[in-house]
């Protein structure tokens, strides 16, 4: 079972998510938080697999709540579920540790698919979010110093990862084994000093590492 914690200050939103998620045989909603502070507290109590995190909430916003949860429980995944699609909200959320960023207009079936993808280790971004990140790449001026630059093959893997592909899909696209892909991804995480696929994808887009 995938244990889900819902964090949103709107009762109607929480009820709607709870109603739909309860129909899924592989998902269990373990708690509901009305603000970021409660989200942090309940994450400690219930140890969910994933938190559906609103961005703007009283007491503590979703970005700070995400940062605090990930600092103590890095295994807990965070999916931002919000109405904001601008870069001023997207970038801080992902840099805080969010594994996915979706807008509240997402279809219920797509939301469930997104939850499963994140639990499987894949990144998930709303198309509008991807568009905003692509625009952000144009304003980047300097690439941070990387002690060990990525190899050509690691850049190829990173480019495929940024498209949201699974390890199996990357292996098929590059004609290598899944084991090889896993090794490359592990090396990429270490070199870029990121924790997961979403942060690696953000880094790649932000600094133009996927450009051919």
Automatic annotation (TrEMBL):
Modification sites for 4-aspartylphosphate: 54
Residue ranges annotated for the HTH luxR-type domain, each copy included: 143-208
Signal peptide: none
Statement: the UniProt record of this protein carries the keyword Transcription regulation: yes
The Response regulatory domain, residue ranges: 3-119
Keyword Phosphoprotein: yes
Protein name listed in UniProt: Response regulator transcription factor
């Amino acid at each position: 079972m995938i244990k889900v914690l819902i964090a949103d200050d709107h009762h109607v939103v929480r009820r709607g998510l709870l109603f739909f998620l309860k129909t899924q045989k592989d998902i269990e909603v373990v708690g509901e938080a009305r603000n970021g502070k409660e989200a942090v507290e309940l994450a400690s109590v219930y140890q969910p697999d994933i938190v559906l995190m609103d961005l703007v909430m009283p007491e503590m916003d979703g970005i700070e709540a995400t940062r605090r949860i990930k600092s103590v429980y890095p295994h807990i995944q965070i999916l931002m579920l919000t109405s904001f699609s601008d870069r001023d909200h997207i970038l801080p959320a992902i840099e805080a540790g969010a594994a996915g960023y979706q807008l509240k207009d997402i279809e219920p079936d797509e939301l469930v698919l997104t939850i499963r993808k994140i639990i499987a280790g894949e990144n998930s971004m709303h198309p509008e979010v991807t568009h905003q990140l692509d625009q952000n790449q144009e304003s980047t001026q300097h690439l941070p110093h990387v002690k060990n630059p990525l190899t050509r093959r690691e850049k190829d893997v990173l480019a495929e990862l940024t498209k949201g592909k699974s390890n199996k899909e990357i292996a098929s696209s590059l004609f290598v084994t899944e084991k090889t892909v896993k090794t490359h991804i592990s090396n990429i995480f270490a070199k870029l000093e990121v924790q997961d696929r979403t942060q690696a994808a953000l880094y790649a887009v932000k600094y133009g590492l996927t450009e051919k």
